[in-house]
Design brief:
The protein is mainly alpha-helical and 221 residues long. The chain contains 13 helices and four strands. The strands form two sheets. Strands 1-2 form a two-stranded antiparallel sheet. The protein has a two-stranded antiparallel sheet with strand order 3-4. A hairpin with a 2-residue loop joins strand 3 and strand 4. The chain is elongated and about 60 Å long.
């Protein structure tokens, strides 16, 4: 049976040497190879060093990307000059269920630092992989990651409280950003009781309903 190069690039049964060869043939194939769950650590590292943002983003999103590669990407993209590339990659790492707690905390701390200096993701940019990507939702992405531990929700809740209402970040109001983050915190299984209690007084009815649902689950245990 004949398989096209595109099919080979994404198939988990394709031999490592063939994947390595395909990744060098074209940027389009490299992007596909980066989504393959059966890459060697060396090939993950090679693809993570690509100049192409979509290839890098696919590596960052791959559930089998080694922690060491994710760590290096997170560190490198703190220093990335282009704001778009920096946030797209770090946002994707934050959503990866394989990302370590240490990396999640580092990404969140960077977002908190940006908030404190009065700058937090003021632009949206076009990306071939995900069309328009909202660059202001990294804390929300972290709040939705199943691996996010209880102690980070203290920081996430503080971030949510400090969002300035009525400011506009690209085309989305800060009120909507605050709402989405509040819902994500309220719905997460690891959110500690004291954080849920603080959200129980939210002005948003749906967030209060989410809190009540989570609290009822705890009471039933």
């Amino acid at each position: 049976m004949y398989f096209t190069p595109e099919e080979q690039a994404t198939s988990p049964t394709t031999p490592s040497e063939q994947l390595k060869k395909l990744a060098k043939e074209s940027i389009e194939l490299a992007r596909l190879v980066a989504t393959n769950p059966n890459l060697t650590p060396e090939l993950f590292q090679d693809l993570a060093s690509s100049w192409d943002i979509v290839t890098i983003q696919n590596v960052a999103a791959n559930p089998n990307t080694p922690i060491e590669v994710l760590q290096k990407l997170a560190d490198n993209f703190v220093r990335e000059i282009m704001e778009f590339r920096r946030y797209v990659v770090r946002r994707t790492i934050a959503a990866n269920s394989n990302t370590s707690v240490e990396i999640l905390e580092k990404i969140l701390d960077y977002a908190i630092k940006q908030q404190k200096v009065g700058y937090f993701n003021v632009e949206s940019h076009y990306c071939e992989l995900d069309d328009f990507i909202s660059l202001d939702d990294i804390p929300e992405v972290i709040a939705r990651n199943p691996k996010t531990p209880a102690h980070l929700f203290e920081k996430l809740a503080a971030f949510e409280r400090n969002i300035r209402i009525n400011s506009i970040w690209f085309s989305v109001s800060s009120e909507e950003i605050k709402y989405r983050l509040g819902v994500a915190i309220a719905k997460h299984a690891n959110t500690p009781g004291n954080v849920l209690e603080s959200l129980a007084y939210s002005e948003t009815e749906y967030i209060r309903e989410c809190v009540a649902t989570e609290q009822s689950k705890t009471n039933c245990i």
